[in-house]
Amino acid sequence: MNLPLKIAKRYLVSKKSHSVINIISLVSVCGIAIASMALVCVLSVFNGFQDLIASLFSTIDPQIKVIPIQGKTFDASDPAIQEMAQWPEIAQISPVIEENVLLIYGDRQVPALLKGVTNQYEKQTRIDDIIIDGHFLLHDTVTDYATIGVGLANSLATGAGFRRPLMAYVPKRKARINMANPSSSLSSGRLFMTAVFRVNQAEYDDQLAIVPIDFARRLFDYTTEASALEITLQKNANEANIMERIQGQLGDNFEVKNRIEQKEASFKMVQIEKWMSYLILGFILMIASFNAIGSLSMLIIDKKADIDTLKSLGADNRLISRIFLTEGWLISAVGAVTGIIIGILLCWGQQTFGWIKLGEMSEAFIIEAYPVSVQLLDIAAVLALVLLLGFFTAWYPVRYLKNIWMK
To answer: Which residue windows are transmembrane per the record (predicted)?
Structure first.
């Protein structure tokens, strides 16, 4: 153990000649600990909400999605795509068609996003986990079926098992509009409702209808076209490496996205809010660290006799400065470690017991209590901030007072 650290540790725990110095030191440690604890808890709550959003999207979104950069569709029978299906790292690869349509049920009509999927869709997603009415089915020997979001079902006043067919209308791609008979310019298809899902995300619940891809191709006058590829990887596959390999296989005309990139706006907003909170709480931590300036200044004055003794023993001003700089760092480090440990314990308790609820109407939300997720990067960011502030709060009084006491 080096000499400055050993002396600084002694000064930290030893009783000072003036008890007020002990009190101020304790206040400094407690202030830093509380701010550090708050930082850990707040950042962990944002992580929890991000994980919650990811879990909601992952229920219905693919692990990897490939979309064309130019145009709406591409040929899904391309040999490069067929070759990808044979890669051992890929568990499932399915073409999908996503287009806007007009859905009519009885006297109600609502614009919607029609998503045509293959029979592999149920295996690629956890669609069964979000079904709230009926059961997921694409087609049988008699007819085709649709699974729609709960908001869309409410707008159409329909539900699973309703006997009246659901009609879908789109303009014909290869026909001109006939003003004398506009209906002749539309393609139509008939479906029956088999299930209603709820993701608690408006972009899905209020406008998404999942149908067989063959039905979608007939409706939009497609043959082997697709608007996207949805890919599921094997459990041990490296997602980043496979995405890079897919990009190289398909070329620059396609964009390859994982789940976070598919919903980049949602995740980016959470990240912005998270790090803005980090800056605000960091400012509060900086104010709490100012207590260390007073504590360290009074400690230097209190230890004037020790400084004279050390100088008589041959210690130079640099060594004495390092002692008190280390003392300031120790105050910050003790406060930071204490606060981080308490913050982690509080997050564990919140995650295990759900102490803090979302409010009186918590039963109306997806979860009842605030979600938390402690991440190592956040702990490192909090510790780094505290130590950085600790250095500057220690450096100022040492630099100012050494001209007086260290001559």
So the answer is: 20-46, 275-301, 328-351, 379-398
**φ, ψ at 12 (rounded to 5°):** -65, -40
Question: Exposure pattern of 51-60 as b/e (b: 16+ CB <10 Å)?
Answer: ebbbebbebb
**Are 343 and 39 a contacting pair, CB within 8 Å?**
yes
Residue 185 and residue 171 in contact, taking contact as beta carbons nearer than 8 Å? yes
pLDDT, tens digit, 9 for 90 and up, residues 105-126: 999 999 999 999 999 898 888 8
Of 215, 250, 251, 218, nearest to 117 (Cα)?
215
The closest alpha carbon to 150, from 141, 159, 161, 163, belongs to: 159
The whole-angstrom separation of Cα 29 and Cα 34 is 9
CA angle 271-274-276, nearest 5°?
110
DSSP state of 399: H
DSSP-assigned letter for residue 127: G
Instruction: Give the 3-state secondary structure of 39-78.
Output: HHHHHHHHHHHHHHHHHHHHHHCCCEEEEECCCCCEECCC
Half-sphere exposure of 386 (CA within 13 A, CB side): 32
Using CA atoms of 268, 274, 279, 281 in order, give the dihedral in degrees to the nearest 10. Answer: 170
Angle between helices 376-405 and 264-302 (to 10 degrees): 30
Q: Give the separation between CA 342 and CA 322, rounded to whole angstroms.
A: 30
Fill in the DSSP letter of residue 177: -
d(CA 138, CA 393): 66
pTM over 0.85: no
Cα separation, 56 vs 371, whole angstroms = 13
